[in-house]
Each structure stands twice: as structure tokens, then as C-alpha cells.
Amino acid sequence: MAKNILDMCAYAYIEYYRSQFKKYAWAVDYAENLIQINPKAGLAFVFEVLSVCHNEQEIAYVATGVLEDLLHRHIFHIKEDIEAAVQDNEGMRLAMRYVWSANNSPVSLFLKDMHVKLGGKLVGRYPLNIDLKAPNAVDE
To answer: Which of 42, 54, 55, 113 is deepest in the core (most CB within 10 A)?
Structure first.
């Protein structure tokens, strides 16, 4: 994917969050489709969006949206790339604090592993966002 297209899409994605202008809504659909079909390109998109975030609230928006979806769909395909990014990039470490996962899911195990590898620096003074409730097999 060309860098200028990625820049444009990342800008539109975060600008939609900031303004809610419908003219940027296409970027949300684009991101969802990209993540479904191409995990490596989806990860590049996440990195680019994080680079244009102005504050922690915007980083949380990215983390609980496209980053979380990407991790839950493709953790085994992008695990090494995420590990490298988390170790090298404060913005990515901050984003990982907002990712939610079910207890003992592949994503929660990955988050716990990264937390240990970083000596507790993944979340700092905040707990990991792991749902400790066991999922119900049948709705009551």
C-alpha cells in the first residue's frame, strides 16, 4: 500500500473520530475491510493512525477499535510485529493498555506475556483489560 494512501486513510479515520463528519466515515469501513483481508496492511494502518493521534483519548479510540479487532482476528499472524512495536514505541504500549480481551484468550495470554517481558512497563500502574468472567456457553 502506498504511503500517501495510508497517510490519507489514517488522517480520515482519526478525523472522523474527532469531528464525526460523514465525509470521513468511509475510512472506518476501509479500516475494517483492510483488517479482515490483510493483517500486515492492517497493522501498518494502525501504526499510521497512532502516529497522527494528538492525545490519549484518540489512542484509546484506535486501541479499542481497529487495534483490538486486528489482534482478535490475527494475533498469530502479527504477534512478532506487535511485540517489536510494543518494545520500541511508547504510543503502541499506551494503546495496548486499552485493548480488552477475555481471560485465557490468545490475546490475553499475549498481553500478559508482553507485560512480563517489559517488566511491568506495558501498563504501568494500570491493570490489563482482561475480562476474568468465564464466558457462558448458553444464554439464559
So the answer is: 42
